[in-house]
Amino acid sequence: MSANPLKVGVVVGSVRTGRFADKVSRWFTAEAARRDDMEIHVIDLSEPALVEELKLNLDPLGSPSEAPNLAARIDGLDAYVVITPEYNHGYPASLKLAIDYVYSEWRAKPVGFVSYGGVAGGLRSVEQLRQVFAELHAVTVRDTVSFHNPWERFDDEGRLRDEDGGSAKAASVLLDQLAWWGVTLREGRAARPYGA
Question: What Å distances lie between residue 191 and 36, 98, 184, 188, CA to CA?
């Protein structure tokens, strides 16, 4: 591990019972854990403490003070990777709620995406999330990892059955971009606080 590893939050956005996100997140966190320049922190929105904290109450006037645990966890990180399915051409409501309950903590930090879904592989949800994070003054990295029709591609432990190296390479590219932006923005925030 490097002396000052980038603290990367992996945000698991689906909270559905029987969700597929567990398999995708296990695979991705295993890929990310191979790096010695990153420290991986999983933020699973289905964690009972987060479910209770957010209460998934869809309060449109929510603020970070109403989700202090989530806000503190997001604030303590340098970069994020959001794992999202695509539900009806969009991303889950649970993910939108969590993003909106935290505000300034996202600022001037990079966000990458791992998506999954049907023929589009979750990419429509990623494009929508890019707009949301731009409004929060976060920087989204260009390259993503996406899984098209993934249900038969993963085993029960979250390992790819048919890995030809393409998905691992895509994850490596995403993480390289996240590392560059993460270090650059961390140094920038330390030298001069970001004002929005």
Answer: 25, 29, 11, 5
Give 121-179 pLDDT, tens digit per residue. 999 999 999 999 999 999 999 999 999 999 988 988 888 988 777 999 999 999 999 99
Question: Number of folded domains in the chain?
Answer: 1
Domain harbouring 118, CATH code: 3.40.50.360
Decide if 1 is inside a domain.
no
59 in any annotated domain: yes
Q: Please give the model's pTM, rounded to 2 decimal places.
A: 0.92
**125 lies in some domain:** yes
Domain membership of residue 113 as a residue range: 6-191
The rounded distance, in Å, linking the Cα atoms of 19 and 87 is 12
Cα separation of 193 and 104, whole Å? 12
114, 115, 145, 146 from 167: Cα distances, Å = 10, 12, 7, 8
Token pair recorded at residue 190: 């330390």
Question: Cα-atom radius of gyration of the chain, to the nearest Å?
Answer: 16
